[in-house]
């Protein structure tokens, strides 16, 4: 059966480290100076001796974000009597609850910790109000400690960063939310950096600001920024939802971290990804907490997803761009996601089903991202700006970015998602939901999507989709490179599995070996194999095309192909042409003879018969040209006797050596005096 988020395994440590490395490599995540420490341990569960209790009050949700892409979510119940009780769940805390919700909790109480009896022991009495629209009056307090008075940021630099955050929120919300910020400090707190004393950092920072004349009542968002201290192992900690809110930044005061933590303040959780074995919602799947590589609430610095924006009231509401809820088969158009737009849909929303565990509806959200605005960093990242991104989302579990070509890159899940969009000409079928989604066209103005409901009993064959991905850096001639050939079966769900034969094309004289010559795929599924390409050691510097083709086993007229490139770095070929130009002296007296020598070689051996064109430019700008052929020693010699009436000054000698259709230019200069 297809995977649902309820089956996910979160936080495999190896993948998290690879996600972090990937994010740093393409600039999706700013490196944090904080150590890669594990989350602080949660308090132990109370023993069965704790008193049975049912408490009511207001929920406070905190998320601690760690530099190694792990996290800790903590829930606290604030009672009307002013008591503060941490809630301990048997599994993960529910992701849809935010600060300000009125809740009732049942469990065993000991030492200010209420261990819930089971997953149904917490009931939301009333939902929290939303504060995500309008002016977000934000006060940034720069603070340090009695034993660490360093000031790693300037006030002006911090204000510039907050201006960027304001621009980010304005663009994301279509001007529905703005950040009006003030930066104050530095304030040295009467605290040691040896302990992570969050409550007192807040208390003393506010006291210092008040003493300096700051009116705290003018603000609803408070950000406490301090130099990196090892006592706090997280990079950022934020209150999720509600108003007023607090955020603590531990030495990671950058756009990615601040926008992420303020996203929590507005009420957003993390943006996940789903990785399956055979199809986007295959039989064996793993989910990753920060896995979304487009969304700032995941492992990125781009726009919040359509699901997140809808929760915040930034899409599909009054005076904001619409989301089209698709309820009938038809053709639909998506506007580019990050632009202001012309009134068209920023996302499509297709019902996937009802989550059996929570009763919440689960939807597919479709977006068409373009490298514009705060999504500009996506330029050239796989097919993310040439296809349509799909996410599966529900209120209780959040949003999961889906990979339309699973396991096309097995290095790391984040790399695998780089070609995870649904490409033009490809289709995705969820047979359980009875829906097929196909991308029909895409350009700078938008993308076309066909949605078909119902289980068609007729088999409709279609050309497969092929993606070819591999290294982009230049390599030495003779190097063997591995490319991934990913093939998707676009047949309708009523068809049987099909074998697709594979072929490759490489430049003449090169080797290209497919690990598998065919792939057997069920409709809607995808698989991949490896193509190993090696250039000859004599290959000249340059960029060459390699390609792969998949042909349908039921009809050879149905095929798909894709291409990539192989770049040979300069100077690495065993027969790479090289040339030099020298003069026998650097200065002459009029009447002397200037001897210029061009030496032409390939792979270290002299090239005989190469044509060398010499051009002499005199001090007065007049030129003369002569062609000479290299001898067996690869040398071409040009001689010019300076005349007594030639001008004194600087002379330029240029040469163009040509052999086997390739040319190299060189130059040398000298002076002539009377």
Automatic annotation (TrEMBL):
It comes from the Bacteria. InterPro entries: A-galactase_NEW3, Ig-like_dom, Ig-like_fold, MetalloPept_cat_dom_sf, Peptidase_M11. GO terms for molecular function: metallopeptidase activity. SUPFAM superfamilies: Metalloproteases ('zincins'), catalytic domain (SSF55486). Signal peptide: none annotated. This is Uncharacterized protein.
